[in-house]
Amino acid sequence: MKRETRVNLIFLGVFLALSIPGGVLLFKKKLEPGAGRMSTPDFVKTRLPFMVPFDTPDDRVARYVPELTGKWIDGLVRQSAVSAGNLGNEVNAGAERAMLMNGHKAMISPDRIVQAAGLRREAGKIVVGLILWGEQDRPEAERYRISIVPAKALQSGALPSGALKSGAAPSATDTDARIASSRIIAARWIELPAEVSRELASAGYTKPPRRVVWMEVEFDQPGQTGGEMEIEVRFDAGTGAIRQSIVKLFT
Predict the structure, then answer these.
(1) Is the whole model's pTM more than 0.85, yes or no?
(2) 139 and 130 in contact (C-beta within 8 Å)?
(3) What is the C-alpha separation between 116 and 124, in angstroms, rounded?
(4) Which helix (H) or strand (E) holds 195?
(5) In angstroms, how far apart are the furthest CA atoms of the chain?
(6) Average pLDDT, stretch 155-183?
(7) How far apart are the first and last CA of the chain?
(8) How far is CA 241 from CA 78, 84, 187, 231, 236, in A?
């Protein structure tokens, strides 16, 4: 074999070794549902899954519930202690949807961490199902401090909407406005199914979490039913700093 032939074969082998993996990845990406033609560039995304933690203007980038992700959350709600009495709720997008919705929007905190996924009322109690998106270090219940402000307190001005966001120590008024007795009855990790991770990655969540924290929290029933409530979740972010997220719950 001539020297030139040997050099050409080495070059061809290196070229194939570098190009074939990229070609396979591109081919698989274009096989995904909703992918465009290979001859056309990807479009600029005008909507993102509701939990993607990117800071985007709401008037330019719509937030939505991906199909497989929504069905997965529906299953979590139906299997939990918050499933009874949740189906057919007025705030849901349809009778088949178990996940709590405000119209067609998921109920999630502005920082895209805490989602109010389910709600059940029983004698003197409210049980709320929460999903904490993002990688959490530990799911132990003692890490979390959860309080709720009922619509009555918000409407009366005892505690203005969003007042808990300051992160300051609660005043006497704050304490009176909250429902004092809350109890975390379940807190555990739940792995994201592979098809949900692929759907989120394809929809623009380039690195979705491998797992989320599912929590079920029990509160005393406020005297006034219906309206808006705020749920505040405080937890150790893993660096010793206390993180605070607030989700508005419409019931």
Answers:
(1) no
(2) no
(3) 20
(4) helix 194-203
(5) 91
(6) 47
(7) 80
(8) 34, 36, 21, 20, 6
Rounded Cα gap, residues 247 and 148, in angstroms: 10
Cα separation, 40 vs 36, whole angstroms: 7
Rounded CA gap, 170 and 201, in Å?
A: 39
Q: Which residues contact 172 (CB under 8 A, 6 or more apart)?
A: none
Place of tokens 């202690």: 81
Q: What value, to the nearest 5°, has the Cα angle with vertex 30 and ends 29 and 31?
A: 90
Residue 249 burial by CB count (10 A; 0-12/13-18/19+): exposed, middle or buried? buried
Say if CB 205 and CB 51 are below 8 A apart: yes
Give 60-82 pLDDT, tens digit per residue.
Answer: 788 999 999 999 999 999 988 77
Cα gap 224→216, rounded to integer Å: 22
